[in-house]
Amino acid sequence: MLDLAIIGGGPAGLSAGLYATRGGLKNVVMFEMGEPGGQITSSSEIENYPGQKNPGESGFDFMSTWWGQCSHFGLIHKRAVVTQVSQNADKSFNIKLDNGEIEVAKAVIVCTGSTPRRAGFEGEDKFFGRGVSTCATCDGFFYRNKEVAVLGGGDTAIEEAIYLSNIASKVYLIHRRDEFRAAPVTVEKAKNNEKIEFITPATIKEAYGDNAGLNGLILNTKDDERDLKVPGIFTFVGLNVNNAILKQDDGKFICEMDANENVKVDLKMKTSVPGLFAAGDIRTEAPKQVVSAAADGAVAALSALSYIENLH
């Protein structure tokens, strides 16, 4: 039996693994199908992590050193997809994997994070991967010296628009309001960039194209419809939490969730089920920042340590 199962290999999961193993647990497994690092590895720029040696580096470069440190004290990385977490009669937890295997653990920390939300305009699904993208660092290269659009008004949208301005010939920033959720300094930086044109308030009515991919967007603006002829649109309109593994066979969640199906936790990252903890983007009121996810992971691990000690 595992002492602790950590599900998810982003900043929260890695931090939890570091604190748990350094705290003395000997049998700690982090379940993550891909390379550790999480969603932040797709970010083009990070400059707000305290003590960061190279502000402005990519998310991939920033996270590249984390696994080495977090595995130093014995954290095990198992490449597997977890499909469900359930509890046994003896209060231990079953970790069900997609290959049919079941691991059993005394405690679990869920750090499955979130994924980019679809914007919902007509043609989005049709051209996803063929002109519609949610990752500028992944796909920006394909639009070198071409015009592209960015949809969104948060920090990620503005930061990625700035990043794309170094690749594309022009970037159209589309947002449904004149005001932005992004930090004022970031918005000002974008407004001072001659390659970025703000189109506000506006929404995307339709994406159109042909078999080769996206050709353009029909926008609803405050004045009239606008035909924006671009081969690429990057959407950054929020995140959906990855909570599917917490659903039980009867369709209900194993623990209490809030109205948006984020996991309810207290200040110690405890869920309503003893021995089950949640950290990072999946928990209620998460700021969805790397620094807070890492902190959540540390808090959850310390709570798990205390819980496991009291089992004996």
TrEMBL record:
Gene3D superfamilies: FAD/NAD(P)-binding domain. GO terms for molecular function: thioredoxin-disulfide reductase (NADPH) activity. The keyword DNA-binding does not apply. It comes from the Bacteria. Residues 3-297 form the FAD/NAD(P)-binding domain. Its EC number is 1.8.1.9. InterPro entries: FAD/NAD-bd_sf (IPR036188), FAD/NAD-binding_dom (IPR023753), Ferredoxin-NADP_redctase_2 (IPR050097), Pyr_nucl-diS_OxRdtase_2_AS (IPR008255). Keywords: Disulfide bond, FAD, Flavoprotein, Oxidoreductase, Redox-active center. Pfam families: Pyr_redox_2. Belongs to the class-II pyridine nucleotide-disulfide oxidoreductase family. PANTHER family: THIOREDOXIN REDUCTASE 1-RELATED-RELATED (PTHR48105). This is Thioredoxin reductase. It comes from Campylobacter majalis. The gene is trxB.
